[in-house]
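Researcher: Quick test of sequence recovery. Tokens follow.
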């Protein structure tokens, strides 16, 4: 019976996989014709599904190719735009127009300030290194200048200092409205007794961009301070930058200057002497001021006074008319380090005679002196300035 059932109606099972589709469990009849018909039907369905999937993949590939092509075109366009912008920028820089220059500004923030022996512009040397004992401390802003950035400066003997002529009376107008600001094309120079020369052939502080350049001797570096000597900087001067002085490239062999600058001693005085009671007046001031001084003793400070007054610090008009009272209401109207007439000194006509008494401010001390027609200076006394007494 079992064998008969197996012969007549026996069925067998068959597993088929078609082109990656899942396995199907097929119940196959023993009849050969039925098996062939089922195989053909199943194969057709597999081919149909494979064709559809192939079409879907082909469509997806086309979409990706189109997207890639669009991205490449966009990148090429962006690159071309950048190249054109760079070319336009280079052209604008190479061929600046006046309108562009007027609208361009480069704001600079000082990195430090100078504490100098020169309390006012009166008496501040016109050039650097003329007064070797003139000392100053360059104090850096620690919030912007880390002390590590000063390492190595002490290995140089001198440094360049870039600063702002901050006491110019027209400074605010110049910076707020540079296009409307005017400056004198020519200025008077002391060495030519008032004769005018072109502004840019001098070191006058009254310039379109009131920036000064000086050199000083590096004495020491102490934390965030650089101690200097031979300075021509007034107290409170803002500093924009310092750079080391390098002799092989900064010292130019064979450099020439105009004839009027040839005489090194044209502004030197004949002699500097001190009155008999000057030392006593200086000692009285030193008891109050000595603790904060850049100088170790009143004797050293007196040597500074002698070096400063060894040059005629008066203006051209003061030298030409020494007995005319030119009382200035405020030292803030003077021009520091200027080549122009009227830029130095404060002269007052003595009450009893027509002799002029001049005043020099150093470290808050007022030094009174006179100078005769032969260039002989007599330093009379030292007093604490009125401004310092109020403090």
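Model:
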């Amino acid at each position: 019976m079992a064998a008969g059932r197996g012969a007549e109606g026996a069925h067998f099972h068959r597993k088929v996989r078609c082109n990656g589709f899942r396995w199907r469990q097929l119940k196959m009849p023993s009849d050969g014709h039925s098996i062939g018909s089922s195989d053909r039907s199943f194969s057709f369905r597999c081919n149909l599904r494979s064709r559809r999937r192939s079409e879907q993949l082909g469509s997806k590939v086309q979409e990706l190719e189109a997207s890639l092509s669009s991205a490449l075109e966009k990148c090429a366009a962006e690159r071309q735009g950048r190249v054109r912008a760079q070319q336009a920028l280079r052209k604008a820089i190479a061929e600046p127009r006046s309108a562009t220059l007027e609208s361009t500004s480069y704001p600079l923030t000082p990195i430090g300030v100078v504490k100098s022996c020169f309390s006012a512009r009166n008496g501040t040397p016109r050039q650097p290194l003329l007064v070797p004992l003139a000392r100053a401390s360059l104090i850096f802003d620690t919030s912007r200048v880390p002390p590590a950035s000063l390492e190595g400066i002490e290995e140089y003997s001198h440094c360049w200092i870039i600063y702002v002529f901050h006491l110019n009376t027209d400074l605010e107008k110049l910076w707020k409205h540079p296009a409307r600001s005017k400056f004198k094309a020519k200025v008077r120079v002391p060495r030519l007794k008032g004769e005018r020369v072109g502004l840019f052939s001098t070191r006058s502080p009254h310039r379109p961009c009131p920036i000064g350049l000086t050199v000083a001797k590096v004495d020491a570096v102490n934390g965030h301070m650089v101690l200097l000597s031979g300075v021509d900087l007034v107290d409170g001067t803002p500093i924009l930058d310092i750079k080391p002085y390098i002799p092989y490239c900064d010292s130019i062999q064979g450099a020439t200057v105009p004839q009027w600058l040839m005489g090194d001693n044209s502004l030197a005085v004949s002699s500097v002497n001190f009155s008999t009671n000057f030392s006593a007046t200086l000692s009285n001031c030193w008891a109050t001021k000595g603790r904060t001084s850049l100088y170790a003793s009143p004797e050293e400070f007196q040597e500074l006074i002698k070096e400063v007054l060894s040059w005629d610090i008066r203006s051209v008009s003061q030298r030409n008319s020494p007995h005319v009272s030119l009382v200035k209401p405020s030292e803030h109207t003077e021009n520091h380090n200027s080549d122009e007439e009227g830029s130095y000194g404060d002269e007052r006509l003595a009450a009893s005679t027509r002799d002029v008494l001049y005043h020099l401010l150093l470290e808050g001390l007022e030094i009174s002196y006179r100078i005769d027609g032969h260039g002989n200076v007599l330093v009379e006394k030292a007093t604490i300035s009125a401004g310092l007494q109020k403090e």
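The longest strand covers residues 211-222.
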